[in-house]
Amino acid sequence: MLRAMRYAVVLALLVAAAVWLAEQPGAVTLVWRGYRLDTSVSILVFAVAVIAAIAALVYRFWRFLRHAPATVTQAWRDRRRRHGYEALTRGMVAVAAGDAEEARRQVRRAEGLLNEPPLTLLLSAQAAQLAGDDRAAAAFFESMTKRPETEFLGLRGLLTQALRRGDTVEALALARRAFRLRPKGEWVATQLFDLEVSAHRWLDARATTEDALTHDHLTKDQARGRHAVLACQMGRDAGRRGDREEALRLAREAYGLDAGLVPAALELARLLVEDGKHRKAAKIIEETWRRSPHPDLVALYWRAREAEAALARVKASERLAAVRPEHRESALAIASAALPAQLWGEARKHLEQAAGADAPARVYRMLAELEEAGHGDLARAREWLMQASLADPDPAWVCRTCGNATADWSAVCGKCGTFDGFAWAAPSHAARLESAPSPRLLAETAAPEKEGAS
Asked: Where are the domains positioned within the chain?
C-alpha cells in the first residue's frame, strides 16, 4: 500500500513537471556543422531524457557482456559444489546405514565434484573402514594428519585403529600427539589417561589428571580421588621394589587425600606398625573404619593395639567396633575374636546380629564353627553350612565395569582395564572360597551316607 502511494506521488510530480515545462514559453536553437535546429525547451528536455535512458541501457548491456563469462563460471562452480555436498551427505548416510558400496560410490562422486581433499578424506577413510580395508583407511587418516585443518581427525582415526588392534604403544603415542593439538578436548584427555594407567605410567597419569582439572574435565573431588588412587598404587609398587621410604611417603599422601580408601589405610598402617608407631596406626585404622569398615583392617588393628592374647583381641575388636557399632563388619570383628577366645555367648550374640537376609556366607560358616567347637552340635553345624551354601558370596574387590572379582585390590582392573573400578561388594557370579569343615565334622557327615548305602 505504501509502495503504491509512493509510486503515485512520484508519477504525479513527473506529470506536474511535464505540464509546467509545456506551459513555459521559450525556444532553443542549436547550430552545429551547418545545421540549425529550432525547438522548444520541453522537447529538448524530453530528448535529453530519452538519450540518457538509452545510454544507461547500453551501459548495462555492456557490463552484462563483460561479466557474463565469470558469472556463468561461478554458477557452474556453485552447481558442482552443491552436488558435491549432496554426494558427501549421501555418503555419510550410507556409512551410517552400513552400505559400503554406496559410500564408496558417493566418495568417488564427491571427489570428482569437489576439488577439496579435506572434505572427502574423512568420508573416504570411513568408507574404507566400512568395507574392512583397514590399510586404505589408515592411508587416508595418515593423509589427513598432513593437513593442519584435519590433523586431529586423522590422529583420532589412527588412534581408534590402534586401539582396535590392541597396539597400546602406538595408541599412547597418537593420544599424546592429539592431546598436544587439542588439550581442551575431553575425549582425547580421557583416552590419554586410560592408556597411561593401562601402561602403568602413573606419573604421566597424574600430570594428565592435573591438565584435565585445569580444563574443567574433572571436578576437584574427582581429581582428588584419582590422585589418591594413583598415589596408593605407586606406594604399593614402591614397597614391592623395596623402596620403603617412598612407599611410606606415598601411602601418607594417598591416605591424606582419601581416608576412606581402604588399601591406602592398610598400607600406611602396616608400615607404621613395622616402624613401631602403633598408636598412629591404630588411629588411622579407626578413622578408615569410621568411613569404610573392612574385614582386612581387623587383624592389622590387633597388631596396632599389640593384642596378642585372645582376650586382648576381643577388647581391641570391641574398641574398633565402637567406632561404627551399627555396621555388620563391627559385629563380625568382635565375633572373629570371640570364637578363638571361646567366648561362645559373646560370639553368638554378634553373629546373630550380623545374620540376616543379605548376610554373606562367612556369617553362617562362623555360626557352624560356633556350633561345632562350642557345643559339639554337628547337626546344627551342618544346617549352618547348608545355609552358607545358599547365602550371598563373601564380599571381594569387584570391578564395577566387568564384574571381575579378586581378593587383592589394584588401581586398574586386570580384566577390562578400568581405572579405580574396584568396590568391596558381593560378587554377582563367582565361585566362593569357603573354609573347609573340620575333619571330625566331615566324618560325622559322611557316616549317615555310608549307613544309607549299606
From this structure: 2-22+40-76
